[in-house]
Amino acid sequence: MITEDARELLATGAVCDSCLGRPFADRSFGLTNAERGRALRTTVALAADDDFEPDEPTNCWVCEGYCGTFDAVAAAVVDALEGVEFATYQVGSQVPPLVEENERLFREDAGLDPEVGESMKREVNREVGRRIGAKTGTDVDFDRPDVLAVVDLAGFDPLETLESDSVTSHAVDVQVNPAFVYGRYRKLERDVPQTEWPCRECGASGVQLGDDGEEPCDHCDGTGYMYETSVEQVVRPHVVEAMDGDEGTFHGAGREDVDARMLEEGRPFVLEVKRPRVRDPDPAELEREINAAAEGAVEVDGLRLATYEMVERVKEHDASKHYRADVEFGDPVDREAFEAALEELSGTTVEQYTPQRVDHRRANLTRERTVYEIDGELLEPTRADVRLHGAGGLYVKELISSDDGRTEPSLAGLLETDAEVTALDVTGVEGEDEPFEREAYFRDEPREA
Ligand SMILES: [Zn+2]
Ligand SMILES: [Zn+2]
Q: Ranges of Basic and acidic residues compositional bias (predicted)?
């Protein structure tokens, strides 16, 4: 009987309405625990025809006053988030072990299950969260909030807070989750890596030790980097600045060789911004800014605000690639033989043993990859233009050269002459089963074409 239980709980000592209501938290959805507690206290007093005597959190032996501090805690969280843009939040809390022990004793002393109803921790999270939402016009998100506030109740004295109505700032820790911008990049010049490439010799410091002390590193001409720029270095600073974040990380959907261009549709990427204070920059504006500053070496396209899941999407989504290659042959090649070789390769699954040029720390193995389509034009007896569409992971340079027989079949093998890719362009990266760009992965509306 609920009134009986309430009477037993009240007999344990002075308790506040929230603490009295919490063991009954699974009853009457839509009430706060304080409202449940107040109603039970009233019912018990009426039934016994006793004088009504409320107990404030200040006197509560269970929460020791914490249930009266929700407003002050929420205000401290909102203060800590000053200047940070967010649409969703989540609150976590640490409850002092002594208070958790009180909660158990409270129920046990009244003859109830020590776990019955709701825990103090859940009440703090919900009540503080509700107040943050009301003050800032934002919504709770238990899955992937923009910001996360963790409240350490042991970090302040509840009775002092009940007097001063404020909470020391070190009791509240706010984390701002990263924000993401998706796009496709084109690399219009060769010898531009996708991500920045620090010099190994000097550990990116740009200096080496000479006879007369420090001098510019020979290996990188004192720049600290192996290449002047990279796609990452072109894109990152603008996105980080537009989102007023602390730093950025570039995630590409695979990568082309440094000496290959990336043309036409471009390659999907996500730029992740840590601790953004702005979450909704204008992607069109950002795109113009990046392209103007890149001066033609790199271009970006189709920038949109993306969800957290888009990082895994660009990294894991199976994609096929389109290529264009300049090919040179060791001996003159007959046009019919050239066309017959391409026909033979088209639709074929090739076996590729790990290429000699690939990092030797990687395990050697044979992979099978399909050449969906290959086509080309013999420009001169020793020179051809080849276009192909292949499964992700196909080694294109080796498909042409055979890599001393490590790829089988190959263009060189079928023509029985040396063949070498002298210039390679990636002309498309597309999802095998479905496009990278599904609306579920975006936070903004599609732009008008
Ligand atoms: Zn209490
Ligand atoms: Zn160096």
A: 437-449
